[in-house]
Automatic annotation (TrEMBL):
<feature type="compositionally biased region" description="Basic and acidic residues">
    <location>
        <begin position="582"/>
        <end position="617"/>
    </location>
</feature>
<dbReference type="InterPro" id="IPR006876">
    <property type="entry name" value="LMBR1-like_membr_prot"/>
</dbReference>
<feature type="transmembrane region" description="Helical">
    <location>
        <begin position="378"/>
        <end position="396"/>
    </location>
</feature>
<feature type="coiled-coil region">
    <location>
        <begin position="224"/>
        <end position="251"/>
    </location>
</feature>
<feature type="transmembrane region" description="Helical">
    <location>
        <begin position="425"/>
        <end position="446"/>
    </location>
</feature>
<feature type="region of interest" description="Disordered">
    <location>
        <begin position="576"/>
        <end position="669"/>
    </location>
</feature>
<dbReference type="GO" id="GO:0071875">
    <property type="term" value="P:adrenergic receptor signaling pathway"/>
</dbReference>
<feature type="transmembrane region" description="Helical">
    <location>
        <begin position="146"/>
        <end position="165"/>
    </location>
</feature>
<keyword id="KW-0472">Membrane</keyword>
<feature type="transmembrane region" description="Helical">
    <location>
        <begin position="177"/>
        <end position="201"/>
    </location>
</feature>
<feature type="compositionally biased region" description="Polar residues">
    <location>
        <begin position="618"/>
        <end position="634"/>
    </location>
</feature>
<feature type="transmembrane region" description="Helical">
    <location>
        <begin position="6"/>
        <end position="21"/>
    </location>
</feature>
<feature type="transmembrane region" description="Helical">
    <location>
        <begin position="33"/>
        <end position="52"/>
    </location>
</feature>
<feature type="compositionally biased region" description="Acidic residues">
    <location>
        <begin position="658"/>
        <end position="669"/>
    </location>
</feature>
<dbReference type="InterPro" id="IPR051584">
    <property type="entry name" value="GPCR-associated_LMBR1"/>
</dbReference>
<keyword id="KW-0175">Coiled coil</keyword>
<protein>
    <submittedName>
        <fullName>LMBD2 protein</fullName>
    </submittedName>
</protein>
């Protein structure tokens, strides 16, 4: 079992990262290099979080062995026995042999740093480039990242010159490496505290509000109003871009040198626009450079970039609108079924996707009613209380982890109590729950935040390549300082505990921060205390109120703008609901018509065909050729009339349609 735990976690984390990437990315449409780079970045970050508890338990065992070796001892099998006190140092079930973890951490850390600082920024520019060739995209990416890379080289070069000129500094390569790691971790810790302060409050509060049916429904109406505005803006933007593409396609003819670029742009357009532009083309007309002014390749590359962005945004808003409609319909069904006397959950609309038979067998309407109307609100409340308790412990430990005598950090107290009894299962579970909760608070904020339309992680395969790569960059920059912060909370970092004990393999890779004393003794200790201020600001929704004042509508219960958007979203959901009801009623009438008159039409058609065959045979033997032609054409007319009668459906008058809006009735007619 010495390396089995490490191997199992490596495999499990890979499939976890693959599952999340499949939820947000699109393996079929996005470039393979983008998928591989994002998967590698997510995988390495998740791997650090899952493997670090094993490193802690292995380090505790190694410390016990050092203590045993420094005193008279006897070796016995898988543990070492102290002679005077008869103390036993049992091997943990997940023990990792010496020499494996340092190599493992070194490969994982430096690969993630290479991704976040060099490869992923380059691939971001490459993915957003509108170039028509690989060389053109690489050139554009290098130009866009020249300032980005040049700034780092300038700072590093100035630092090297300062060290070389100043005789008081005698830095070696290991110290330079430690300074680079410290600089990267300082930048990551600055962003980490901001995201952590938001997640510690918002995650428990979101689960508490999840138990409020009215709250969720009102927020869904609010989202519907905002999403409809974004959807209309995306459709208008797509129409404008397609109009520019149409003009370019008409001006650049088939024998123009840039026609290949235009064809590449047309392939990225939606199918209906491609067909419309294909019908209006006249490829038999030659171009004349003297008479017409044609766009340059640079302007076509810019147009190509705009087409990719507008099509992706339009597709994303369409999918999100359908998902939001299903969510709103379901919440309205829950509100209606709460007062149901039969205690069976009744859906207004049937699911459009086929459900699993096993789920249908166990998750019956009665079970669904008890879960949605009774158990789920209480489950969310209990979960919110547990998460809030974890948040309070984290905030307290962040403010007191620098105190070693007495030990005030609760996480350090738990680990030290378990270390005395060498309960490795408890140590690993406590470490895993702690770092897992910290990771959820930070990573969930990364998945929730939205920077206008440049960075946005949308589920159901609607995230663009730029946002996927940007999320990989954030994960790689946030995970190392997150793990160092966790080791500080548990006093497993010698810099915090001030003990001359064996450090963890992860800390040994980071190097001693004593090279930069103002960072090790100042910034790393006192800056995490700002999480208290950020939690208070998040609790009172100060950021939401500031965004609302700046014109970015946010969901606030005491705002008049929020009430107006809720009413607007409620009306939009009501219209979509009526539209879907009319569609289902039409399908039901059509199905009933076919079931009722389908057999009669089939028998009528068979009799007509039989009569036609008899008349045709009689005309061939006893009548002339014109009479035969007339008889067959009459038979075809009879068959056409029967087929038209079969496809017809009865007219239906719906009294509810009188109260509908005039615009909807016109569109229906």
């Amino acid at each position: 079992m010495s390396g089995a735990a490490l191997g199992l976690e490596i495999v499990f984390v890979f499939f976890l990262a693959l599952f999340l990437l499949h939820r947000y990315g699109d393996f079929k449409k996005q470039h393979r290099l983008v998928i591989i780079a994002t998967l590698l970045a997510w995988y390495l970050c998740f791997l650090i979080v899952f493997i670090l508890p094993l490193d802690v338990s292995t380090t505790i065992y190694n410390r016990c062995k050092l203590a045993v070796n420094s005193s008279p001892a006897e070796s016995n099998g898988s543990y070492v026995t102290l002679a005077p006190s008869k103390q036993k140092c049992f091997k943990p079930w997940s023990y990792i042999p010496d020499g494996i973890m340092p190599i493992f951490w070194r490969v994982v850390y430096w690969t993630s740093q290479f991704l976040t600082w060099i490869l992923l920024p380059f691939m971001q520019s490459y993915a957003r480039s509108g170039g028509f060739s690989i060389t053109g995209k690489i050139k554009t990416a290098l130009i866009e990242n020249a300032i980005y890379y040049g700034t780092y080289l300038l700072i590093f070069g100035a630092f090297l010159i300062y060290v070389a000129v100043n005789p008081n500094f005698n830095l070696q390569w290991n110290q330079l490496q430690t300074i680079g790691i410290a600089a990267a971790n300082t930048w990551g810790l600055f962003l980490l505290v901001l995201l952590l302060g938001y997640g510690l409050v918002e995650i428990p509060r979101s689960h508490w509000n999840g138990a409020k049916r009215g709250y969720l429904l009102m927020k869904t109406y609010f989202k519907a109003a905002k999403l409809m505005t974004e959807k209309a803006d995306a459709e208008e933007n797509l129409e404008d871009i397609m109009e520019e593409v149409r003009k370019v396609s008409e001006s650049i003819k088939y024998n123009h040198p840039l026609r290949k670029c235009v064809d590449t742009i047309l392939k990225k357009c939606p199918t209906e626009y491609q067909e419309r532009m294909g019908r209006n083309m006249d490829d038999y007309e030659d171009f004349d450079e003297r008479q017409n002014s044609y766009p340059s390749e640079k302007s076509l590359a810019k147009l190509h970039k705009q087409v990719i962005y507008s099509v992706q945004r339009h597709r994303r808003t369409q999918v999100q609108w359908q998902i939001l409609l299903e969510q709103a319909f379901y919440l309205e069904d829950v509100a209606k079924n709460e007062s149901s006397a039969t205690r069976q959950f009744v859906h207004t609309f049937h699911s459009q996707e086929p459900e699993n038979k096993i789920i249908q067998y166990f998750y019956t309407p009665t079970v669904e009613w008890y879960w949605e109307c009774l158990l789920r609100p209480w489950f969310y409340r209990v979960l919110a209380v547990v998460l809030a308790t974890f948040s309070v412990i984290v905030v307290w430990s962040e403010c007191t982890f620098f105190s070693t005598k007495p030990v005030l950090s609760l996480f350090a107290v738990f680990i030290q109590l378990a270390e005395k009894t060498y309960n490795y299962i408890y140590i690993e579970m406590a470490c895993f729950l702690t770092i897992f909760f910290l990771s959820i608070c930070v990573y969930s904020t990364v998945f929730r935040i939205r920077v206008f339309n440049y960075y946005y992680l949308a589920s159901h395969h609607q995230t663009d390549a730029y946002s996927l790569l940007f999320s990989g960059m954030l994960f790689c920059r946030l995970t190392p300082p997150l793990c160092l912060n966790f080791l500080g909370l548990t006093h497993m970092d010698a810099t915090i505990s001030h003990k001359k004990t064996q450090p963890t393999a992860y800390t040994s890779i980071m190097g001693s921060m004593k090279v930069l004393s103002f960072v090790a003794d100042g910034f790393y200790i006192y800056y995490p205390m700002l999480v208290v201020i950020l939690c208070i600001a998040t609790y009172f929704s100060l950021g939401t109120r500031c965004l609302n004042l700046l014109g970015f509508q946010q969901f606030m219960g005491d705002s008049e703008m929020t009430s107006d958007l809720i009413d607007e979203g409620k009306e939009l959901i009501r219209r979509e609901k009526r539209k879907r009801q009319r569609q289902e009623e039409g399908e039901n009438r059509r199905r009933e018509w076919k079931e009722r008159y389908g057999n009669r039409d089939d028998s009528t058609r068979s009799r007509a065909v039989h009569t036609d065959q008899k008349e045709s045979s009689f005309s061939e033997t006893n009548a002339s050729r014109p009479l035969s032609k007339y008889t067959r054409s009459n038979g075809r007319t009879e068959r056409d009339r029967i087929e038209l009668l079969q496809d017809a459906e009865p007219l239906d008058f719906n009294a509810d349609s009188v109260n509908d809006d005039p615009l909807e009735s016109d569109s229906g007619r």
